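for the recovery benchmark. tokens below, seq after
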């Protein structure tokens, strides 16, 4: 029988390598832009009557003295523009509209939103609180749901560690992707945050499936050691987890290719989360239970060391 549990050190090392390298790329590379909701500023969605190239829109704002703006093309006639809040923010919309009308062409519609620094700080705080509440709630639920097995608190902690792994992996992969693909633009926005919260739900669902099978096997054969029980449980649910991830990933990829660009930040996080959530459920959360029990991180392939039960 394939012994997945014995070489759990390999999976821990792989996760640490990917997360460490990805976060390094995130901080040293182009990184993820912060959206207006979190940094304060102005956001405009403009639709022209006739198609217009993005370069023309950029030149129009540049000539009229606008600085540090970011333009994203949504369609042939539609653009998203982000600008810092100016001292004369009450006239900023009028100035943007005049610059685009005079130098690009007639505007069919213009949506303009201002976010003050106070509102941006509150959004950041509320976002962090939402994530923390979700994690604490998940911990409490796991401990309660698995109260019938020994050391149910360990199951809750292992699940939370797996969630932290998935969040870190999402940012790490984003850092690597933006660094490699210069055309890819990711923004830390409310859609990004919604993707993280959805990722937590998907990941914990997969983790509970693995934990539930471990619980069933422990109750069925209480004399079997935990490493063997976890290994059998992983092999039993691995096919189901992989099939679910593949089908979900295909749907998300279709939306990424054919769906609107406004939800691409959400879809990116979910694509990473589907893979990372399945991986962490099998190779992080459940393996951590074994390491906690036997007081050993496991072996590496070709290390020549046999693991003992501890």
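predicted aa per position
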């Amino acid at each position: 029988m394939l012994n997945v549990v014995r070489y759990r050190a390999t999976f821990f090392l792989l996760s640490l390598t990917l997360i460490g390298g990805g976060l390094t790329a995130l901080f040293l590379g182009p990184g993820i832009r912060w959206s207006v909701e979190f940094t304060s500023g102005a956001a405009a969605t403009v639709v022209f009557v006739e198609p217009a190239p993005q370069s023309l829109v950029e030149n129009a704002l540049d000539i009229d003295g606008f600085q540090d703006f970011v333009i994203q093309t949504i369609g042939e006639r539609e653009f998203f523009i982000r600008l810092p809040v100016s001292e004369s923010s009450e006239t900023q919309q009028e100035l943007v509209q005049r610059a685009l009308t005079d130098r690009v062409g007639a505007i069919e519609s213009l949506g303009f939103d201002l976010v003050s620094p106070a509102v941006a700080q509150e959004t950041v705080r509320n976002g962090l609180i939402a994530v923390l509440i979700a994690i604490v709630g998940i911990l409490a639920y796991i401990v309660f749901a698995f109260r019938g097995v020994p050391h149910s608190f360990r199951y809750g902690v292992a699940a939370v560690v797996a969630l932290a792994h998935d969040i870190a992996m999402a940012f790490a992969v984003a850092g690597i992707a933006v660094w490699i693909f210069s055309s890819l633009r990711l923004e830390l926005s409310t859609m990004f945050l919604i993707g993280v919260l959805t990722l937590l739900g998907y990941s914990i669902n997969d983790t509970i499936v693995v934990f539930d099978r471990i619980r069933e096997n422990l109750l069925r054969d209480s004399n079997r050691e935990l490493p063997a029980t976890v290994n059998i449980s992983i092999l039993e649910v691995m096919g189901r987890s992989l099939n679910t991830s593949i089908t979900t990933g295909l749907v998300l990829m279709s939306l990424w290719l054919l769906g609107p660009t406004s939800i691409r930040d959400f879809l990116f996080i979910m694509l990473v989360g589907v893979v990372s959530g399945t991986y962490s459920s099998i190779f992080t959360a459940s393996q951590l239970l074994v390491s906690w029990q036997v007081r050993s991180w496991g072996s590496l392939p070709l290390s020549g060391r046999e693991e003992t039960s501890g």
